[in-house]
Design a protein that fits this description.
Blueprint lengths: L2 E7 H10 L1 E2 L3 H6 L2 E2 L1 E2 L3 H9 L5 E7 L7 E5 L5 E5 L3 E2 L3 E6 L15
Antiparallel strand pairs: 1-4, 1-5, 2-8, 3-7, 5-9, 6-7
Length: 113
């Protein structure tokens, strides 16, 4: 089992709670898949793509729950990143964590082991 993570604005998560699915952010739509990060990648994702953004949450998903629509593909530095080619069903979200801004302006990802 391997947990993967998705950072998104709390307002987007509120929409998921109503709709029951998440079909991706603007960046996800442009790239054709929903971007996720592993535990080892999520802090750098927060630093690179979410610096200065407030009111964020981090979704925690079990990668195996997503089936064959989840692909591991090379990205930043050749690391394999999880990409979901489809929608994320709210029922697949195992936990939702707060990601408050730290003193350095980077969202604090306090869920990591």
């Amino acid at each position: 089992m391997r947990r993967i993570y998705k950072i998104l604005p709390r307002a987007d998560w509120a929409e998921v709670e109503i709709a029951g699915v998440f079909d991706g952010s603007a960046v996800d739509h442009a790239d054709g898949f929903i971007h996720f990060s592993t535990a080892a990648q999520v802090a750098e994702t927060a630093r690179r793509h979410f610096a200065g953004q407030v009111d964020l949450v981090v979704l925690e998903i079990e990668s195996e729950d997503l089936g064959p629509a989840l692909r591991w593909e090379p990205s930043r530095g050749g690391d394999l990143f999880p990409h979901l080619y489809g929608v994320l069903d709210k029922a697949k979200v195992r936990a939702v964590h707060e990601a408050p801004l730290g003193p350095d302006g980077i969202p604090a990802i306090g869920i990591l082991p």
